[in-house]
Design goal:
There is one protein chain. By secondary structure, this protein is mostly beta strands. The chain has two domains: about 300 residues; about 130 residues, CAP (Pathogenesis-related Protein p14a). The protein is about 5% helix and about 40% strand. The chain is built from five helices and 42 strands. The strands form six sheets. The chain has a 24-stranded parallel beta sheet that branches. The chain has an eight-stranded antiparallel beta sheet with strand order 35-36-37-38-42-41-40-39, covered by helices on one side. Strands 26-28-29 form a three-stranded parallel beta sheet, with no helix packed on it. The protein starts with a helix and ends in an 11-residue tail after the last strand. About 50% of the residues are buried.
Length: about 500
């Protein structure tokens, strides 16, 4: 890879033949800091038997991952690194910029002295530390052996960080390991990620040199409970510690922790002082008192199962998740939990477009606390409303929504009706599959915010619907479906939105 990077022009794509390669170092070269990236795209399954270290600017490792991050045990990756993967630099003047790593299954993972780094669709772990203490834990922070330059503009997205452990020999040698270690840096984002089966903690924040990390956003992520080390317990056992630990007598500032799911005994804990640390829309167990009652820390619209930290938080009788057991984590919300629809308001901290699985969160209704929205709020013109997609089976719909409030059959078409999100949701089936779905609930909207309650003018402008005088509604054919919008008498406000399969659309004549 280093030779290819040296000869390739910025912006070019290098096809990497499938096969096994030794450790790869991509070295820094002058003149590349502002250039377009050289893209390394695997043409087949690639294995790096050793480490992958990127010192260079303008590098895009373009691997692919299959499946969703919440089903991480079934995911596959087009690039495998048997050792560790890192982006790292030498100094403030010589460090990588504009680096993207995607679709890599690796051991440990690090973003060190670097800036503008995107790490996406990565599996980091498992790594069991041995007596040699030679495997780094995942890190975001400056290189300890380089001129101090804190990383900045770093995003970890859809990263699975799991199984960081140590054996008895490592314990006797006093080797330290755990989940992600954030040492320092600024403008750090961790989103849509999963932390599972890591010893001690999921994230430790400790600037053992330099200034502490600031301007940090953690959102839409799952945190299984930290566990006892393999030498302490034969099976994965929660260790009773916090997922997010501020472990330094430092002044931590400007953190936003929102819409995450915590299965640990405490969501967060630590020491030091705080300024503008915000917890919004999270679900799990409340942070320890040093954070929950800490000066400079605020809490809004969180759903906690053990104590609350503000008047707007709610107290749950138990964790609201499908399964919080280590090794079996499914941190989706259970149906009918009070965490659903909790986050109501237009505050910028509440505005989050989607959840950990890219389901759209509602625009005009309360968002669910935690990382996973129970039901998508998205209307896909001509295709879907929420969980209901044209052609989906009735069996699947009953499994999700339950038995309908009303059900009838007319001319071979079954109609099921539900109360949903303060309105009505109706489904029509031909045979056992959906051929039409409609709603009056303002919970459901398009990505552009059009749904029941919107203005007709906006629907015309954003959706391109036109008046169908025969049917007395606005209509637009989209792909294999047709979008219907019914209005009030004045034709100013949207009342219902429906999607109908083209094969099920009845012909209309003026006499009708």
């Amino acid at each position: 890879l280093n030779r290819a990077y040296a000869v390739a022009q910025p912006g070019q794509t290098v096809q990497v033949a499938g096969g096994t390669y030794p450790t790869q170092n991509i070295d820094w070269r002058p003149g590349r800091d502002q250039a377009s990236a050289v893209v390394f795209r695997p043409a087949g399954r690639v294995t790096i038997d050793g480490h992958l270290k990127v010192w260079a600017s303008g590098v895009h490792i373009a691997g692919k991952a299959t499946g969703t991050v919440t089903d991480w045990r079934s995911r596959t990756y087009s690039i495998r690194v048997t050792g560790d993967t890192a982006v790292l630099g030498d100094s403030a003047s010589q460090h990588p910029r504009n680096v993207t790593l995607e679709g890599v299954d690796t051991g440990s993972l690090g973003t060190y002295t670097a800036e503008t780094v995107l790490v996406r669709d990565i599996d980091a772990g498992p790594v069991v530390q041995g007596a040699a203490c030679n495997r780094p834990q995942p890190v975001i922070g400056a290189n300890v052996d380089a001129e101090l330059f804190n990383p900045r503009n770093v995003t970890w997205e859809r990263v699975v960080l799991h199984g960081f452990d140590r054996d008895q020999a490592a314990a006797e040698a006093d080797c330290h390991t755990g989940g992600l270690f954030i040492v320092n840096g600024s403008n750090i984002t961790i989103r849509e990620s999963v932390f599972a089966e890591n010893i001690v903690y999921n994230i430790q924040v400790q600037n053992y040199f330099g200034r502490p990390a600031r301007n940090v956003l953690i959102e839409n992520s799952w945190f299984g409970c930290p566990v006892l080390a393999g030498n302490e317990a034969a099976t994965k056992t929660c260790n009773g510690q916090a997922s997010l630990q501020f472990n330094a007598q430092s002044a931590f500032s400007d953190w936003l922790v929102r819409f995450n799911s915590f299965a640990s005994l405490y969501a967060a804990g630590g020491e030091g002082s705080y300024s503008n640390i915000r917890f919004v829309g999270n679900a799990g167990r409340a942070p320890g008192s040093n954070v929950c009652r800490g000066t400079g820390v605020s809490f809004r619209k969180n759903a906690w199962a053990a104590g609350t930290c503000s008047a707007s938080d709610i107290l749950l009788t138990s964790l609201p998740f499908v399964n919080s057991s280590p090794g079996q984590e499914d941190l989706k919300l259970r149906p009918k939990t009070r965490a659903a629809g909790l986050v109501v308001g237009s505050d910028p901290d509440f505005r989050i477009a989607s959840d950990i699985e890219h389901r759209m969160r509602p625009v005009r209704a309360g968002r669910d606390a935690g990382a996973a929205q129970i039901e998508s709020a998205e209307i896909v013109p001509g295709g879907a409303i929420g969980t209901v997609r044209l052609k989906v089976s009735r069996q699947k719909m009953i499994a999700f929504y339950g038995r309908p409030r009303r059900s009838s059959i007319r001319s071979g078409i079954r109609s099921d009706r539900y109360r949903a999100h303060g309105g009505t949701l109706w489904l029509r089936y031909r045979g056992s599959h959906v051929v039409a779905v409609g709603t009056t609930s303002g919970y459901y909207t398009t990505r552009g915010g059009i749904g029941p309650g919107s203005s007709v003018r906006d629907a015309q402008r954003l959706l391109g619907v036109s008046w169908d005088a025969c049917r007395g509604l606005y209509r637009r054919a989209v792909g294999g479906g047709v979008l219907y919008i019914k209005t009030n008498r004045a034709r100013r406000a949207v009342v219902t939105v429906s999607n109908v399969a083209r094969s099920a659309e009845e012909p209309c004549s003026p006499e009708r």
